[in-house]
Write a structure and sequence with these properties.
7-stranded mixed sheet, 7 helices, 26% helix, Rossmann fold, single chain, 2 domains, 271 residues
Length: 271
């Protein structure tokens, strides 16, 4: 199999295909594949914008026109995955829009790393999920102390119990939060444990955007006497930077599914 790495900074496999890509003055992405390809191809891409999706679609078309019959796809972070339900009138079901565009390409297989919810996998054809188990396992090897895995909310709890089982039964603790569906504002963080003295809490979740969930939980966890606090997120957007996160967490772990990072307290594990 050959590999077309559309983001040249994200190259998880060898045997890559040479190409040139650029954007026309009108804003349209374009690609020129610079070698003849006939064997099966896996396309990999970090989709952080609709133009990234556009590059994926035209690259797929270019391969088909070259005669490539079998094309697979690896998208580490599935776009629009958080907009997976309709909360208020007037909003789109964004994950379905992306899924339908990708399904229309007829990929042999679609690999996604730790999707936000089961809605993504239900909408995609021929999907294969890469779980976050190894990311968590590698992260924990760099930590010490009396570790407890922390679920930030009910939505993450099921996934964390699966991680715990994979790792041999590390203790799990549940937390919760309240979110205003209209404004998106968070409030009412609750830790369902009274005494965390001496514990090394490790919050595990799929996405860190602004970090509001984790900052709010960190405050409540420290009130319960937690000794150390680390964060493991599969997809690190970190839209508000690291200043506040660094004040609350001893260490932050993430993958390179979104972008490459160089930050003192952040350990990035490549997919």
């Amino acid at each position: 199999m050959r590999y077309l790495h559309l983001d040249k900074n994200f190259t998880p496999y060898e045997n890559s295909i040479r190409f040139e890509s650029f954007v026309f003055n009108g804003g349209e992405p374009h690609i020129k594949i610079q070698e003849q390809v006939s064997e099966p191809v896996m396309i990999t891409h970090r989709i952080n914008s609709f133009n990234d999706l556009g590059l994926l679609l035209i690259a797929t078309d270019a391969l088909k026109r070259m005669g490539v019959k079998q094309i697979e796809l690896f998208i580490p972070y599935f776009p629009g995955a958080r907009q997976d339900r309709l909360m208020i009138s007037g909003e789109p079901l964004t994950v379905k829009v992306y899924a339908e565009l990708i399904n229309a390409q007829g990929y042999e297989k679609i690999q996604v790393f730790d999707p936000h919810s089961e809605v993504t996998t239900a909408l995609l054809d021929d999907v294969e999920v890469i779980e976050n188990y190894d990311l968590v396992k590698q992260s924990l090897t760099k930590l010490s102390g009396d570790i407890v895995l922390i679920s930030p909310d009910g939505g993450a709890l099921k996934k964390i119990y699966k991680v715990s089982k994979y790792l041999g039964g590390i203790p799990v603790m549940e937390c919760s939060k309240k979110r205003n569906v209209t404004t998106g504002q968070l409030s009412g963080f609750t830790v369902y444990e009274e005494d965390l003295t001496g514990k090394h809490g490790v919050i595990v979740d799929d996405i860190c955007d602004g970090g509001g969930t984790f900052l709010g939980l960190a405050t409540e966890l420290k009130k319960k006497g937690i000794e150390q606090l680390s964060l493991i997120v599969s997809h690190g957007i970190f839209s508000k930077g690291f200043e506040e996160l660094n004040q609350h967490f001893d260490q932050v772990f993430t993958s390179n599914s979104i972008r490459d990072l160089e930050e003192e307290k952040v350990v990035q594990i490549k997919l």
